[in-house]
Design a protein that fits this description.
about 190 residues, single chain, alpha+beta, globular, Nucleoside Triphosphate Pyrophosphohydrolase, 4 helices, seven-stranded mixed beta sheet
């Protein structure tokens, strides 16, 4: 891909993120503050969608739940050594932030047909701890997806394990982050 094509692709992702965040109705004051922070960050950093951009950059993720909302499919991240929803950095070939969340969910879960619901369910801003190179902070746009609980999975090169967890017994060390995400996603999967 040429440098000009790559620049246009990053701009398309940037424009999509701004449009989605400008129209998203945050469910509470904390999420509204994050929405405004994300928009300010995007306006200040034209390269905020790229991992090669500023140390704080946008990422996309998706929590995958079964049809009942009683189980969540999670990945044990190889670098962080913690259980997370599926997600990561945007890539130049992603059509939108939503498409990127779908790509990440499929790549990291091994479930080829998992598809995120169209609306943002939560925003999260977190500092990275560990060996993440120049990445220091993620501004994460989060989606939700539903798939059958008996769906077979596969472990990606970025993971140690992929496993279904009851939402009422999420893994130690991840509950504080994952339970609010599950709670934010449940109304979307039950709509």
């Amino acid at each position: 891909m040429s440098e000009r094509s790559a620049a246009a692709a990053w701009q398309r992702l940037h424009t999509d993120a701004v449009a989605r965040l400008e129209t998203w109705c945050a469910p509470d004051e904390r999420q509204e503050r994050l929405r405004v922070e994300f928009l300010e960050h995007l306006r200040s950093h034209p390269d905020a969608m790229s991992k090669a951009g500023p140390p704080a950059h946008l990422t996309g993720s998706v929590i995958v739940l079964d049809e009942t909302g009683q189980s969540a499919l999670l990945t044990l991240h190889k670098r962080a050594r913690q259980w997370f929803q599926f997600g990561g950095h945007y890539e130049v070939g992603d059509e939108s932030v939503w498409h990127a969340a779908n790509r990440e969910a499929r790549e990291e879960s091994g479930v080829p047909d998992v598809t995120a619901l169209p609306g943002i369910v939560q925003l999260d801003r977190h500092v990275l701890v560990g060996d993440f190179g120049t990445c220091r902070e993620h501004l994460d746009i989060r989606f939700a997806a539903v798939t059958a609980g008996e769906t077979s999975t596969a472990v990606s090169t970025e993971s140690i394990d992929v496993r279904w967890w009851p939402v009422d017994a999420l893994p130690e060390g991840s509950r504080e982050d994952l339970r609010p995400l599950v709670d934010a996603a449940l109304p979307y999967i039950r709509a």
